[in-house]
Amino acid sequence: MRAKPDTTAFSPEEQRKKEEAERRFIEGGAADAAERSPGQTGEAGAAAATPPEADPLPQQATSTQVVTVQKLFRMRKDTSEALKQLALDLQKSTGRRVTETEIVEELVRTRCRLPPISK
Fold first, then answer.
1. pTM score, whole prediction
2. Taking a C-beta distance cutoff of 8 angstroms, is the pair 86, 69 a contact?
3. φ, ψ (nearest 5 deg) of residue 22
4. Coil, helix or strand for 40?
């Protein structure tokens, strides 16, 4: 017969001890201390050692960057097979990799009367 499990590790006092030990570990890390300059201590040193947060909004696209979005949609099986076959045929005829995405984008741009993509 098995004994009852020891639940003292889950007591509020043990939880506080554990949280305190984790806090001391995080705040007193050797790597953080190495990054701080000799004159920096405490909060000022920790704030200076952390990099600034990344901008949550995407940057404006430059002339060399193209902003893309992901679109997920379902299509009929025969359409999918025709798209795959077209991609293979174009790869054989051009000698370069042609993706299904490139074909779909070209067809949508033509249908929506958008200017073609310059290569």
1. 0.46
2. no
3. -65, -40
4. coil
DSSP letters, 38-64, are: TT--HHHHHHHHSPPPPPSSPPPP-TT
Q: What is the mean pLDDT of each run of 10 residues along the chain (119 residues)?
A: 80 85 79 61 52 55 79 95 97 96 95 88
Which two structure tokens, joined as six digits, stand for 62?
Answer: 């430059």
Q: Are 109 and 115 in contact (CB under 8 A)?
A: yes
User: Contact at 8 Å (CB) between 36 and 48?
Assistant: yes
Closest to 21 measured CA to CA, from 37, 6, 9? 9
| Tokens linked to 8 | 């003292």
Would you state the pLDDT for residue 92?
Answer: 96
- The distance from CA 91 to its chain's CA centroid, rounded to whole angstroms, is 31
Tokens 């025709």, residue located? 82
